[in-house]
């Protein structure tokens, strides 16, 4: 179809993913050690991510009918998420990249996803 | 010959399942509804070169076996053998899209628990391969324990390895034991923890099979940066919709002239070849004038549908839903309501049926109630006739005035839908608990074959309507407009003495205040059965009441000289709200399973139509257009 894809070689891509995983582990560890250090990323919810920001899913708030669906569509612990776009006004809804797919979520829905 | 094996296709939404279904079954498809629910049931069949028959059921796309919508519940119940009147499939083909392999594989693990024979069809797109997708198929097959075949649904012969796998399975079951039909299996819905574990298991299996995720296309990312942008995205959507309506008018002009000329020539031929009498009048004034004035709108309907089908195929529609979610949320609708509402531009019936993808009942009901305010293609003939007759065909800047007026009418429909939805929200005070969670699939070039197939379906349905219900109504109307014959000393046109004429006169006291004459009153009655019949009815009424010169003129020029501008505008306003066609009300009754909502709908539409026409007429008369 449309021409032009990311031309990174597969090696670079898999390398980048490895770095990401390392970073994730570091974050988990540092978060654990320096709870009071505000410079370290702490748990927050997906709706707090700005456009273009990425994070990793820690969990989905349970008890909501919706949380099950979020889990099924790929918001499971360890999955990388990125906020691609958000609408005006009020940055709602969001377009979120997760597990190779893009989903439109309302803020209320995104708030159920905990990320680091 | 052996009994046909029952195969069910299960997969995520947008996984290419339907394309694979089309590839397997070609034109041997039957589309109907499941009994009791309005979920579309698509079954097809094919016979292999060795003579084995297969019956394929294309189940609604789902992310899991725990349903959130009616569609998904059907998929689960059939897979479990719980669905009344539907036999359990002998084998499940799980269609997995290469670009969504982790999610597809998780679904596969869930479906595998059902214990049915299974084949995983890995639907490969060229895109996935070009973007660096990679998986060791044999290894994955080994660790997953399910046969995996590659399929390219969009290419001829792309389902060959799947067919081969089905044959292998059939032969092995036939040699071992005639397949005994399992009716139901003990099955427990997986818990949230189970779902998470399945995700982890899927990831583990993929790692074992050297899976490499395809990269996101930078083109899609760049296009989305524009089309999902709060400002540019909205402007693009508005521009797109505007272009669609311009095209509906300007591109269709020439073919419509051809049809018009053809219908005129046919009527002339009938008039010349046949002796004067009731039969000639029935053919020329009833059938040809009536059906002809509806058929003429086929080009416009096809152009509108071409756009809708292309937008649907390309993956743009969910993005429009994303863009409009905020606007729609403000009036108590879900962004998901966009797709049913857009379908309602073609016809409210598929639109109302499409509301079943809205999980929340209040959202769904509100969407159903406002769906008929979207300008359906049956209203297009009425608008087109009145615009052609009363709005000058000139340019305002780059735009055609007629196109602008049409766009305005569509906009009036949308605006009133939002208003009505807001009123419903205020009245019901529904809790703001709407769901969006809508996938935005990658863009694709629309598939020419599926667009053409869709167009053919629409054209066929439209012509069937024109040839069936509309023809019948037009004949009935011709009869009512012709008999009883006028007395010998009649001074008025014959039609005024007929049943229809008397009825029209009787209705005039109701419709007079909004500027409608008795001819319009007559046409509105069959227009309740199907809106576009109003045009055919006007064609018949004027053909019967006209003198020789009127008959040779087109309907547009007849009404242009007969009606005031105020009357025409009032009729346009009336049709923005256009009291229901009976078919729509019947569908609402079926969907909501109650008479309450169709009655409510008919009432509020009648009230709004009368009010809007009255205001329009009065204002126009005051401004001197009476």
Mean pLDDT of chain A: 71
Largest protein interface, residues of each chain? A-B, 43 and 57 residues
- The helix tally of chain A amounts to 3
* Biggest beta sheet attributes of chain A: 6 strands, antiparallel
For the biggest β-sheet of chain A, the strand order reads 1-6-2-3-4-5
Shape of chain A: globular
Radius of gyration of chain B equals 28 Å
Residues in helices of chain A, as a percent range = 25-40%
The computed structural class of chain A is: alpha+beta
Helix and strand element order of chain A: HEEHEEEHE
Task: Write a structural description.
The complex is a heterodimer of chains A (116) and B (626). Helices cover 31% and strands 25% of the residues of chain A. Chain A contains three helices and six strands, in the order H-E-E-H-E-E-E-H-E. Chain A has helices at 10-33, 65-72, 107-110; strands at residues 44-45, 54-60, 80-86, 94-98, 101-105, 113-115. Chain A is globular. Chain B has 626 residues and is of the alpha/beta class. Chain B has helices at 17-25, 70-80, 101-112, 126-130, 137-144, 160-176, 192-208, 218-227, 232-250, 253-273, 278-295, 298-314, 317-330, 338-346, 348-354, 361-370, 380-390, 401-428, 448-482, 499-511, 518-527, 533-545, 548-552, 555-562, 565-577, 582-592, 596-622, and strands at 5-11, 29-33, 40-47, 53-58, 91-97, 118-123, 148-151, 395-396, 399-400, 438-439. The longest helix of chain B is centred in the C-terminal third of the chain and has 35 residues, at 448-482. The N and C termini of chain B lie far apart (75 Å). Classes of the chains: A alpha+beta (116), B alpha/beta (626). Chains A and B meet through helix 1, helix 2, strand 3 and strand 5 of A and helix 3, helix 7, helix 8, helix 13 and strand 10 of B. Strand 5 (101-105) of chain A pairs antiparallel with strand 10 of chain B, so a sheet runs across the interface.
